[in-house]
Amino acid sequence: MSSEAFVKSETVNGVATITFFHPRSNSLPGAILRSMASAIEQAGADDQAKVIVLRSDGEKSFCAGASFDELVAVSSFDEGRNFFSGFALVINAIRKAPKFVIARVQGKAVGGGVGIACAADYTLAHALADVKLSELAVGIGPFVVGPAVERKVGKSAFASMAINATEWRSASWAKQVGMYADIHETVGDLDGAVSKLASTLSASSPEAMKHLKEVLWEGTGDWESLLMARAEISGTLVLSQFTRDAIAKFKAGAR
């Protein structure tokens, strides 16, 4: 496995597979977020692709959320807003793609990773793919990913995760609240389920799937502006001394 971060796309038999990787537990710096959004948009516009699979490389973590290295380097409101807008771009790319996006969650998901898992149209996960919305614990909040999480699991479950930001929730809990459509005991079983669903969808009517996706995403037409406004909230908070100290403390404990 590569030690360099990347986003790769491959379309085979009607299935566009987009894979992202970062050596620090698949965390998400701005460049990766923008590459992911671009890859999803391109797959959405590709007539050869009938369905999109979004996955990360490696076995342990699906996604550790925002890159702390990039967060601590933010020195202005514009830089902060620009960083968090990357999550908005990915979520909106998934929302606007005229094809279903299947997420393969093979490991733990934190923060922005939870947002991606919830934004996907159908998410399959490993039985140990626990989840956590940790943003409040470092002085921010799940503002940009919040609409996607709330849409998938409801306000009550979203509030529970957002407020108790240090607690892991099990994959079984995530399935119970609707974040995961199903969970699998092994990565092999997970991959088999992803492949089977993607293959079935690749042979389904593109027009029917496009219209069904539009129905499923009704009421989200304002997300283009909403998520950017949320990015501005996070962009302001990340400049606070409280947040800087909290992130520094977290990074020191992670070493």
Q: Determine the mean pLDDT.
A: 95
The span between the termini is 22 Å
Q: Biggest sheet: strands, sense, closure? A: 6 strands, mixed
* CATH class designation: Alpha Beta
Counting H and I runs of at least 4 residues, what is the number of helices?
A: 11
Helix amount, in percent?
Answer: 40-55%
Task: Please report the total strand number as a whole number.
Answer: 11
* Structure classification: alpha/beta
Q: What is the string of SSEs from the N terminus onward?
A: EEEHEEEHHEEHEEHHHEHHHH
Q: How would you name the CATH homologous superfamily?
A: 2-enoyl-CoA Hydratase, Chain A, domain 1
**Low confidence ranges:** none
Instruction: Tell me which CATH architecture applies here.
Output: Alpha-Beta Complex
Looking at the structure, what is the overall shape? globular
**CATH topology heading:** 2-enoyl-CoA Hydratase, Chain A, domain 1
Number of domains: 1
Question: Which strand-content bin applies to the residues?
Answer: 15-25%
| Order of strands, widest sheet | 1-2-4-7-9-11
Roughly how many Å is the radius of gyration? 17 Å
Description:
With 255 residues, the chain is of the alpha/beta class. It has helices at residues 30-45, 68-73, 77-96, 112-119, 146-153, 155-163, 171-176, 187-202, 206-216, 223-237, 241-254, and strands spanning 6-12, 15-21, 27-28, 51-56, 61-63, 65-66, 101-105, 108-110, 122-126, 131-132, 182-184. It has a single domain (6-202), classed as 2-enoyl-CoA Hydratase, Chain A, domain 1 (Alpha-Beta Complex). The two termini are 22 Å apart.
